[in-house]
Amino acid sequence: MSTYTPKHFTVTFPQEYIAHVEINRPQKLNAFFEEMWLELRTLFETLSPDPSVRVIILSGTGKAFTAGLDVQAASTGLLAPNETGDPARKAAHLRRHISSFQACISAIEHCEKPVIAAMHGFALGLAVDIATAADIRICAADTRFAVKEVDIGLAADIGTLSRLPKVVGSFGWVKDVALSARLFGADEALRVGFVSSVFEDKEVMVQGALEMAGLIASKSPVAVQGTKEILNWSRDRPVEDGLRYTSVWNSAALQTQDVQTALLSGIQKRKATFEKL
């Protein structure tokens, strides 16, 4: 990784090819303000092409994954009342600001490397935006989720309303939690498919995330990164378009030496190792 050092996140490399990013504002339950989401974007755009990273784990320090938007900070910034100026011009300013915020969270989805969101404690509002942009979601048994935005007078606008229905496949359930802003727990999140695994506590969850990341990192990075790209591209398009995109992508990717390496390792019953990408 480059020398970039974020102020509100810690980055460690607990195993070869694995980066562990932790949201690090525990005194505020990891609530986000503008500097943090700008840092998040820079961080994931830095890790994305890094050949020494194959999988990223995203978790939170302290008692929460994140309590979402720092409403106090937003009340004097993005959400501050503004009674002056032409409404169209104010709308243009807000639209640009929202689009920038969206792009920061979308940096997780656009990252070349698979991202595992490992959640515990509170995972509210923006936490759901972040989690739905990740590739895999797991949580500790104590996690409490909520699509919280209607409680502060707005519709969620950073990704949840677009991504969550595709993640869980139940439009009715999404409307239930998004319209009510009610809390739901780990068991419900598992039942609807929002998370794929629930662990006893945070410590066990992080270990589980490391094992999952280690397994993914042991595979061909050409294959893993291609799989993420094709799945994300195909999600919002007809099957026929997805098939065509896959054929174009793999017409290049299948020329990798990794295919032969993987096949021979299976025949010879040995563990395959792959070059950096």
TrEMBL record:
**Major subcellular location class:** other
GO biological-process terms attached to the record: fatty acid beta-oxidation
Molecular function (GO) terms listed? delta(3,5)-delta(2,4)-dienoyl-CoA isomerase activity
Q: Which protein family is named in the record?
A: Belongs to the enoyl-CoA hydratase/isomerase family.
Q: Which Gene3D superfamilies match?
A: 2-enoyl-CoA Hydratase, Chain A, domain 1 (3.90.226.10), Lyase 2-enoyl-coa Hydratase, Chain A, domain 2 (1.10.12.10)
| Coiled-coil blocks | none
- The lineage's top-level taxon is Eukaryota
Which Pfam family, an example, fits this chain? Answer: ECH_1
UniProt source species: Aspergillus avenaceus
What does UniProt give as GO cellular component? Answer: mitochondrion; peroxisome
Record pathway: Lipid metabolism; fatty acid beta-oxidation
Protein name listed in UniProt:
ClpP/crotonase-like domain-containing protein
Q: Where does this protein reside within or beyond the cell?
A: Peroxisome
Q: Do you know which PANTHER family this protein is assigned to?
A: DELTA(3,5)-DELTA(2,4)-DIENOYL-COA ISOMERASE, MITOCHONDRIAL, ENOYL-COA HYDRATASE
InterPro entries tied to this protein: ClpP/crotonase-like_dom_sf, Ech1-like, Enoyl-CoA_hydra/iso, Enoyl-CoA_hydra_C
| Keyword annotations of the record | Acetylation, Fatty acid metabolism, Isomerase, Lipid metabolism, Peroxisome
Please give the start and end residues of each transmembrane region.
none
